[in-house]
Amino acid sequence: MTFSLNVETRTERGKQLGKLRNAGRLPAVMYGPKEDTVLLTVDKIAFEKLVKKTGESSVITLEGLSSPKEVLVRGVAFDPLRGGVIHVDFYAIEAGQEITVDIPLEFVGEVPAVKLGGTLTKVLHEVEVTCMPINLPQRITVDVTVLTDFEKQIHVKDLLVPANVKIENDPEEVVALVQAVEEESEEPTVVDMDAIEVEKKGKTEEASTGESK
């Protein structure tokens, strides 16, 4: 599936970017191994809707330039005080070349071992894959219904991806497992009354000695 986004080139820099943002435009840049850096703007609402739908790992075709460009969202800057996106970096993909990207994991299903008193631990939330841009998956599904007891684990080698997609992580790396919940022992605290009496007696003697000086 391909996704497109309309962009425009810009000349504004520095303090001038505030006017763009107030007008509902996001400053952006596009760069790549065989691309000069290009200053762009993109409609903020359109960008946020697209990323919400596709995620940041999908290939996007930028329209509105001298020729369409396939890109990945390489970086998104947020306003630390008010929140919201304030800048976007697009990475131009080299035509005919494979790309290596982090793809999010989507955990689906109910975990049988949780009913035995365990809790699901997600060790990985994304994996690194290499493939042609057209074959790039938006996400990789992890079926957690196989975790039937505390001995079972899901490893990278268990993830299902198309033959034309290669996962770069160690195949033996753990993706998810279920751990038993340890109950905290609630042993009553034993108070040594004899020690308290001895301490009180010692303090009383010290006070008496002090007053007699």
* CATH homologous superfamily annotation of the largest domain: Ribosomal Protein L25, Chain P
| Rg, alpha carbons | 30 Å
Into how many domains do the coordinates divide?
2
What is the number of helices?
A: 3
Structure write-up:
By secondary structure, the protein is of the alpha+beta class. The protein folds into two domains: 3-97, Ribosomal Protein L25, Chain P (Beta Barrel); 100-180, Ribosomal protein L25, C-terminal domain (RNA Polymerase Alpha Subunit, Chain A, domain 2, Beta Complex), CATH 2.170.120.20. The chain is 17% helix and 39% strand. The protein contains three helices and 13 strands, in the order βαββαββββββββββα. The strands form three sheets. Strands 1-3-2-6-5-4 form a six-stranded mixed β-barrel. Strands 10-7-9-12 form a four-stranded mixed beta sheet, with no helix packed on it. A hairpin with a 6-residue loop joins strand 5 and strand 6. The longest helix is centred in the last third of the chain and has 20 residues, at 193-212.
Summarize the structure.
This protein is of the alpha+beta class and 213 residues long.
